[in-house]
Design a protein that fits this description.
By secondary structure, the chain is of the alpha+beta class. It contains four helices and six strands.
């Protein structure tokens, strides 16, 4: 697959690069604030994003550009499934700049990840988590062909 996917309507999608660090950090900070009212530590966040941009074996960012300006992002991480003998891609850190929302940018970003999944026999599917009360996000995911699972997410955070 090419590193760049063109969208006739608006912009293009490409893999995230180190020069996107500041924008991705800002988007992730905004995402936590908007969805969870959580203030992330900028230093930790910057190091975390830089680690991914430097080492795609940990995760991979894709960004959506309009006129050479990054206006949206999506990241996936990897989870091996012994039950399916394949890899799940976990979609995370999805963000579209406020002025570019409702223009199909998330759909384009998601379809880029779905294409990766559909064209790689070692990838068995895509998963993501969503806030229980986020009805808009749930409707969006269902409209893209995703379905609700029988799992709840639990975590231990150090």
């Amino acid at each position: 697959m090419s590193n760049t996917t063109n969208n006739k309507n608006l912009g293009n999608i490409r893999k995230g690069r180190i020069e996107d660090l500041e924008t991705i950090v800002k988007f992730n900070y905004n995402l936590a604030k908007e969805t969870e009212e959580k203030e992330l530590n900028f230093d930790t966040l910057t190091k975390g994003v830089k680690t991914v941009l430097d080492d795609p074996s940990k995760a991979q960012y894709y960004v959506y550009e309009v006129n050479n300006k990054v206006v949206g992002q999506i990241m996936y991480t990897y989870e091996w499934s012994d039950w399916r003998n394949g890899m799940f891609l976990w979609v995370q850190s999805v963000y579209v700049d406020l002025e570019y929302r409702r223009q199909g940018i998330y759909k384009s970003l998601y379809n880029t990840i779905k294409n990766i999944c559909d064209n790689d026999d070692e990838i068995t599917g895509i998963r993501l988590y969503v806030e229980k009360e986020n009805k808009n996000a749930k409707a969006t995911y269902k409209s893209l062909g995703m379905s609700d699972c029988n799992y709840n997410i639990y975590e231990y955070e150090k």
